[in-house]
Amino acid sequence: MDSFDCLTSVVVFEDAFVSAICENREGSFLCRFKMRRYAQDAMIYLDHNSTTPVLPEAREAMMPFLTSEWGNPSSAYRFGARAKTAIESAREQVAGFIGAERSEIVFTSCATEANNAAIHSAISSNPKKRHIITSQVEHSSVLHFCEILSNRGYDVTYLSTSPEGLIDPRELEETIRPDTAVVSLMWANNETGVISPIREIGEICTRRKVFFHCDAVQAVGKVPVSFRALEIDSLALSGHKLGAPKGVGGLVVRNGLPFHPLIVGGKQESGRRGGTESVPLIVAFGAACEAAHRRPLSAWDQVSRMRDALEGNLLATVHGAYRNGCASPRLPNTLNFGIREIDSDLLVTYCDANGICVSSGSACMESAITPSHVLLAMTGSHSRASEAVRVSLGLESKPDELARLVALLQQFLVLAR
Ligand code: PLP
């Protein structure tokens, strides 16, 4: 049984207005509000787990490769060699940042590709092993790939999560079988920010001799991540979560392990990923990693304090508000909350109408909105999943922006209740 009756809504956009038919225990009513125009620089961006602004360092580093240095890195002449050298410098920057060897970095188009490629390689390296372990709260790039493998005859086990969003390493230990080919688990959840016991998971996989792939997209740059210090076989990274443009990512693969490429063609990336490299994006990714490497991680302490203050303020002053996921261990920038009987999509639209970008975990599938699979796995409640809103701060977020969000939520409740 759901613990709350959720307010549901049908949202219609017409001219500058949004109209929503809302329902609660007392019946249905019309909620109508204006989409205000706001200048880009007046926008309050609180959705950094979705994507981040491009860093000036990344933009500047890539510019020559969009203008004069457009050679193909595979060409034998010096014009091509300069592009190749730029890729190798970027590889050095990424490796230095995450504590890996240069030869362990494979550039990809995004973390989705890196996650697909890692699982593909692990199962191709062990063709007799037909069992895969992942969790119910992974990103769709892991879940949908596993779904396809399941349709091809692989047996996939989805680890459960506690109501607080935590994976239990004991469940992993009990689930590993002699035919387990790969364990794919994320470092930090993109919706709740909850951090998994990665060290313990790595130790279990090493002891049980199972390949461990980790989706570290949300953790990298926000918490200490050292590939060589942990027992991880491969790790996925995304450029646009770190201040690089969209369209570039990386897969870190431990030296000495066999690798079976997902994308085949040319011999780029030492035969581990075919296709002419996107030199500008790779160079920008390297520069973003270098910038993150130089920045002390303590820069996130201030963000964490702001997030905690926002959480305290929101829970104390917004009627019916509650937090989703445990308070700790959690990414320093993420708060996932719900407001009883308030549909998150309507709330996100109201925030947008007033110049604030936050997100709901819901996904648009075949023109229907489905509630967050993460919250559904954690709570078993459709209402809780439909109420989940994610706020994710960046290093440039300011306290007055968060105060504006809380004021807006209070204002919305007057409208909706
Ligand atoms: N994994 C996690 C945890 C993510 O949050 C995301 C993107 O939101 C991805 C993977 C996919 O990253 P990309 O957009 O680079 O494909």
Overview of this protein structure:
The chain is of the alpha/beta class and 417 residues long. The chain has 2 domains: 56-294, 3-Layer(aba) Sandwich (Aspartate Aminotransferase, domain 2); 297-416, Aspartate Aminotransferase, domain 1. The chain is built from 13 helices and 18 strands. It has a 7-stranded mixed β-sheet, sandwiched between helices. Strands 12-13-18-15 form a 4-stranded antiparallel β-sheet. Strands 1-2-3 form a 3-stranded antiparallel β-sheet, with helices on one face. The site of pyridoxal-5'-phosphate (PLP) has 12 residues, from helix 3.
* SS field, number of helical segments: 13
Radius of gyration of CA atoms, rounded to a whole number: 22 Å
CATH architecture of the largest domain: 3-Layer(aba) Sandwich
CATH fold type of the largest domain: Aspartate Aminotransferase, domain 2
**Biggest sheet, in brief?**
7 strands, mixed
Low-confidence stretches: 1-6
Structural class, from helix and strand content?
alpha/beta
What best-fitting shape do the alpha-carbon axes yield? globular
Ends: how far apart?
Answer: 23 Å
